Amino acid sequence: MADETTQDPTQQTDETAQQARPEDQDAPRAAEAQPDAPEGEPAEEADDSTGEPAAEGAEHPDTILAAERLADLQRAQADLVNYRNRMERLRAQDKDNTIAGVVEALIPVLDDIHMARQAGDLEGGPFAAIATKLEGVLERYGVESIGEVGETFDPNHHEALLHTEGDLPEGATETTVVQVLQPGFRVNKRIVRAARVAVADPS
Questions:
Q1: C-alpha dihedral sign at 124, 193, 191, 157
Q2: Phi and psi dihedrals of 186, rounded to 5?
Q3: DSSP 3-state assignment of 54?
Q4: How far apart are CA 72 and CA 79, in angstroms?
Q5: Would residue 178 count as lying in a domain?
Q6: Which whole number is the average pLDDT over 46-63?
Q7: CB 161 within 8 A of CB 69
Q8: Is residue 154 part of a domain?
Q9: pLDDT per position as a tens digit, 76-114
């Protein structure tokens, strides 16, 4: 019967450990090859959201957004002010147009009052009080009577129906109103009807 060689179990375990996981033996050498970070040099800070370094002097997104919102608010306020001003102008124009329409309808009556006053028919009669009240109401609504004797003729305010040679006021050097045939009317600088007048030219 042949002799059998008996192997020491301890020796077998050591050989197995040396053959197993050779990479574990290289780990200490790799750690020694990696240099340590220099002391005293802080690590570069990274941006929280992107991982990139934060640029110096860059505005924060919240600051930019706040500036945009402020600009939008200022534009909206300016638009509101312009809208209110435009509406006020339109309301004033509508009011003037309405009053001018009433005056145009009353012009025949106002002409009769003027003729009666020129003829002296209003003196001491009840009709004088009615005429005065009507003229007072129109005045409160911005209606003005235009055309006075002695005024320099202005084609924007006067319509010359007659030309005469005399009756010029003393010292007049321009064409002058010498008689008001029918008064004109104006509503807040808007001419409803020009005054119809007789004028005289200087010699």
A1: negative
A2: -135, 140
A3: coil
A4: 11
A5: yes
A6: 60
A7: no
A8: yes
A9: 999 999 999 999 999 999 999 999 999 999 999 999 999
